[in-house]
Design goal:
The protein is α+β, with helices and mostly antiparallel strands. Helix content is 24%, strand content 35%. The radius of gyration is 16 Å and the shape is globular. Keywords: Hydrolase.
């Protein structure tokens, strides 16, 4: 049996809300980007965009790469989408949280173990940009926190995603996840 060792991975909480909304409106109108996994582990489940960190790759660089590969969103200064300026800004002080994703197999014990660093980015535009899933994402779309919680309870969103998003929302609305871009 091959030994399974923990792998470093990254996920990205990408937030969009209506521009110029006050903090209460911003919180209630906020949408978060989730992708539907196209490969194991968690094939078919919805989760935050992300994946493995390559050897020698910085965490934030891995987050930007994975987001671009799975959704097409890039860190370019701005993109014009239907006459709307869309800007992707990143929290550059490093990950805001860390979690484990451990998967067990009936025959061999632990089959996957990822230590996931959660990074944060926000999209500034008048409406959420259209996302086209690619790479190992089967689909991608914007979710409200309530939609995400309901889907997590139904078993279609990976357990723990909602709590990561809620943590990011609290930090963001408290001014602790400032973004640059």
């Amino acid at each position: 049996m091959t030994a399974v060792i923990p792998r470093a991975a990254v996920s990205v909480v990408v937030r969009w809300s209506e521009p110029f909304a006050n903090s209460v409106q911003s919180r209630s109108n906020a949408r978060y980007l989730l992708v539907q996994r196209g490969k194991e582990p968690n094939k078919g489940m919805w989760s935050l965009p992300g994946g493995k960190i390559e050897l020698g790759e910085k965490t934030l660089d891995a987050a930007k790469r994975e987001l671009m590969e799975e959704t097409g969103l890039t860190t370019s200064v701005s993109t014009i989408i239907k006459q709307d300026r869309c800007i992707l800004r990143w929290h550059t002080d490093g990950p805001f949280a860390c979690s484990d994703s451990i998967h067990h197999s009936q025959t061999s014990g632990v089959s996957f173990h990822y230590v996931i660093s959660q990074c944060f980015a926000e999209v500034t535009s008048s409406s959420p940009p259209n996302i086209i899933a690619s790479d190992d994402a089967m689909d991608a779309r914007w979710w409200s926190v309530d939609e995400m919680k309901d889907a997590e309870n139904e078993g279609t969103v990976i357990e723990g995603v909602g709590s990561v998003v809620e943590r990011s929302e609290k930090l963001y609305t408290s001014g602790l996840l400032e973004c640059e871009g």
